[in-house]
Amino acid sequence: METNCNPMKLPNNTGFEEDSDYRDFEGTDVKDMRLEAEAVVNDVLFAVSNMFVSKTLPCAEDVAYINVETRERNRYCLELTEAGLRVVAYDFDQTDDRLQTPYHETVYSLLDSLSPAYREVFGNALLQRLEALKKESQS
């Protein structure tokens, strides 16, 4: 079977060059935790009341902080590292060195342990997606 593939011409300017947050990482293989944190936020924002990467606490190539407010109105500051995610404070933009909480491999596991409402919303979204896939396969 022969296919005809005409690749799209992509612009040279992606916009990252102008953003000072990304300029330092251009051309390197370093994993930027700020980018990882943004991906985490985008993945589960629908299932919490509020979630965003902290602009107050310092982000580095090996750590980023995420503020999350659950649907139960509980606030947390999460630390994201290569080890995973953990709660570092019970308010936005804070860290408490005395707090010894376990690391979670995924944001899903962490939020599942913190928020019954997250669990319900996430489960319902998953069920709706599965039902949609089932309908697609039956068409």
List the topology elements:
Blueprint: H1 20-23, H2 33-44, E1 50-53, E2 64-69, E3 75-81, E4 84-89, H3 107-114, H4 116-138
Q: Which descriptors apply to this entry?
A:
139 residues; alpha+beta; 34% helix; elongated; disordered N terminus
Oligomeric status: single chain
Strand fraction equals 15-25%
Shape label = elongated
Q: Give the spatial strand order of the biggest sheet.
A: 1-2-3-4
Please summarize the sheet with the most strands. Answer: 4 strands, antiparallel
Count up the helices: 4
What is the N-to-C succession of helices and strands?
HHEEEEHH
Structural class: alpha+beta
How many strands appear in the DSSP assignment?
A: 4
Q: Report how far apart the termini are.
A: 26 Å
> Radius of gyration, Cα only, in angstroms?
19 Å
Q: Would you tell me the overall average pLDDT?
A: 84
Helical percentage? 25-40%
Low-confidence regions: 1-30
